[in-house]
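chain below, 215 aa
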Amino acid sequence: MESKVVVISVVAGFLGLLAVILGFVAEVTRIKMDQVLFDGLNCIYPSSPATALGIVALLAIILSQIILTVATGCICCCKRGSLPTTSNWTAAQACFSFSWVSVVIAAILLVLGSAYNNSQQTTIQGDNYFQCYVVKPGIFAGGAIMSLASVVCGLFAYILTQRKDSPVGQPQFQAGSPNQGGIAMGQPQYQWGNQGGVPAGPTKFPPPGPQENVV
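prediction:
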């Protein structure tokens, strides 16, 4: 895996994990109904870091999604660069689409949670009835869960588009391999004809004739 892919994955994953952690912390520290007091005219809300945590989580998950989208490219429109296999491309498109759906839902939940946690609204109806508004349980937690789904799907989509798969079952040769040039490996090679005046095959000599006795 190239170093560029590793760096982008680490940065986007860190921002997504940060958004998830901040979302759950905001859920724990949100203003609850038993913490609100009433002085006879207005609801008195305690201080809570949930609003700031929700806003930071929102910025983190949006930044993570932007980084992954720019790095991945417009995979829904056309294929770019080195093409992955068809199965990888289909899976990448599905993960990319679900990632954007998840980040939109996460952003909506985090915005609503941050807004209502800091609204401090009071409704008085009659002498003995009043309403104080707080964030419903699960709003920040839902944003954190959707942020996690968004960054996981976005990372899968990005990594799948960067994979380069070679065809399976095709012989691969390297430069300088003895199996190049149309020569089958393991087959004996023969040369025909004479090279440099030397017979290529075994030399045949005439049978010896009768020998004369010399006195």
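The beta strands are 37-38, 43-44, 122-124, 130-132. The first strand starts at residue 37 and ends at 38.
thats it, cya
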